[in-house]
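## tool: complex_structure
## caller: assistant
## args:
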Amino acid sequence: MVSVNFSEVIKKYTMVIALVVIIAIFYVGTNGTILLPQNINNLLSQNAYVFVLATGMLMCILTGGNIDLSVGSVVCFVGGIGAVMMSKGMNVWFAVLVMLLVGIAVGAWQAFWVAYVNVPPFIATLAGMYAFRGLSNVVLNGYAVSITNTTYLNVFGGGADCYIPDFFHGAKLNTTCMLAGIIAVAIYVIVSIRNRIAASRKGYATTGFAGFIVKLVIISAVVLFLTYKLAGYKGIPTSLIWIIVVVLAYHYFTTKTTMGRYLYAVGGNEKATQLSGINTKKVYFFAYTNMGFLTAIAGILTVARAASAQPTYGQFYEMDAIGACFIGGASAYGGTGSVFGAIIGALLMGVINQGMSIMGVDANYQKVVKGLVLLVAVIFDVVSKREKK
Amino acid sequence: MGNILLEMKNITKEFPGVKALDNVNLKVEQGEIHALVGENGAGKSTLMNVLSGIYPYGSYTGDIVYNGEVCQFQKIKDSEEKGIVIIHQELALIPYMSIGENMFLGNEQGSKASIDWDKTYAEADKYLKMVGLTESSRTLIKDIGVGKQQLVEIAKALAKHAKLLILDEPTSSLNETDSKALLDLLLKFKQDGMTSIIISHKLNEVSYVADKITVIRDGSTIETLDKAVDEITEDRIIKGMVGRAMTDRFPKRENVKIGDIAMEVKDWTVYHPQFAERKVVDGVSMNVRKGEVVGIAGLMGAGRTELAMSIFGKAYGTNISGQLFLDGKEVKLKNIKDAIKHKIAYVTEDRKGNGLVLTNPIKINTTLANLSELCSKHVIDQDKEYQVAEEYRDKLKTKCPTVEQNVGNLSGGNQQKVLLAKWMFANPDVLILDEPTRGIDVGAKYEIYCIINDLVAEGKSVIMISSELPEVLGMSDRIYVMNEGKMVGEMAGAEASQESIMSCILKS
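## result:
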């Protein structure tokens, strides 16, 4: 058994600790307003697109610090197509399917140039950023198109009814929400313990017992706290379900599957990966096509939340996603980073945004702060790596 | 006895948790060539970094006395001003700049506001002549070979008015001819009164040029041998380095039966990937049997690596023609994946650049080439992966705290073991090892040789490409000699000698 090494823990969870500290600061600064149920609810649903895009962006960044600048425009393009289709009375599921396919097609288009023609990703996606912004305008004809289809809005978290209904009609607390939280914690605890037992039975090294319990307790407590807060408001926002699905799926993907492994390998040493018999072009192609797919999901969520599509939607979304990844510890040279890191990064940005808005900080200064946070996070990453050498 | 030019007294340097240097003493006389030898990690480079000011004064204890005065270097510029110039192992030249631009980088001629290019190139040409290069200083670095690049590094040092030249593994990427030329150049400088310190793993070179040899082991000075007093032999030096006499540098292979031909190529021709008219491998035929170690000797640029990589699923070259037979059956390998599937492995000469993912842990590197073995439906069984990595760690005696350790933090020898583990896990029948012991110390080399012996004992075939002739001679059952893309000789290992191999090359 390995004892808990305090400095190691701090190093590993720096950004989590930073997040807690920042929440604490804003808690004081806003007299507790930031942790009101409604604000937690807003934090999650307002930033749904960042979580989804950051997950996709991470896949690109892992391959070697490559980014996708086109996602903001493509969010708008995909959302615009869906909104127009629905406004013409087409079937909602057909519209969603088309949105997803368009996203994948756009991703594959850019991925092709990046992977097989060696166009630098920065350029290929910069081209996409212009082109799809233009096409969004064409699709929307320059106007805002509102979405009235209630099925769509309910499923993807838009309008006023964007919550999972409470099946038990709890008087004060949303019982469904609370129950979901408890079940999630139970599953998490059982799976963790089972994995640990399996590992130690096979004789593998496990982390310290105390650390294991602490981690288990903290994560369970955070989940229960969040669900309690949400239950006190209107329940689980629909968009949260989508975030959880995407995050869990991609966490699994990056840590457990071969393609996930190859993303890290290509970013770490492309030549060595090639000489290991892995088709690195396919890896790039996958990363960018997948980005298109997740961009489509982000587009679906974005226009659902606004219940409309406008030609200006999605501007600077790419920057939010890129920032979240780097704040969350992804290396600007590729090869390191994690989905949960990116999510922590996205949360950190979201909390700062929201906290400053509640405190009434001027919007221009908010941008300054965000910029500085990004810089500090990357400086920290670079410096801590240098110390290791 | 000449004057003492440099004396390093009781140098102790600590890194968090490690004492890298422990009371090291080094005395260098004016006008001598002083060799510094020791295993990897013994502290040679650290000592030189202390001397050149990379580790500034105050970060170590002890004194540096140079030319009779105590020096306190804060940065490299300080030591260079005194004429102490270090040439690092990895070449630090910028390929798309000319020789002249590179030589005066950071030492620009002319005023701050405007560089005097005419003066730069005239000066550069002067120094190039001193190192025996006839190239114009306007030639781009990328257009000259590695051997000449190393000479440019030396010219660059001379341009800084070097009085004490420190060369860290200057010949590690050079072939025998270029190495010899470089060493002779050092001897010529010595006659002109230049003092040099040379760090090297190649003991034959050390005994060739050095007047004195200081042996460092585990951060301490063990002894200084003087050519004038002691009798210097390679065995004598090795004894100092490893702390024991190495009776046999190559482990014996016993009772290994050599079987049928496992792999054979016939009339194999490969063209350069960029310059499609240039033949890199020209009509090569060769074979390797089961349980056999076949060495391929030759000079740098003879086409050995290119031959190996082109066989390995066309990893190199265009317009590849010729036949490849595995166990007597002709096969065509489309890509690397195909080659791995047909049980061929190529272990690269450049472990950091082409072999390992340095930012990833040992276990991930170990399984990269054969992940499908651990997978069901593209999902990796990580418990099994851990087990595999542990198994190879035990088998190859890789020194590391855990297999979760990043490969970038390991020493060269241990990195090489991880690279070997990776390809052993791919379970090949034919292993092509390209410079398997480059840049690793004597002890680790021995362990690698043992691994090779274990492999052939299992009936696998090993093709070993090496530029170190003693290694080729000591390990091979059969030796091929390559020169300028052609096979120019084949001989039984027992009959071959350094002379017979060199004469094959020279007479071709």
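## assistant note: The first helix of chain B runs from residue 44 to 52. Residues 361-419 of chain B form one domain. Handing back to user.
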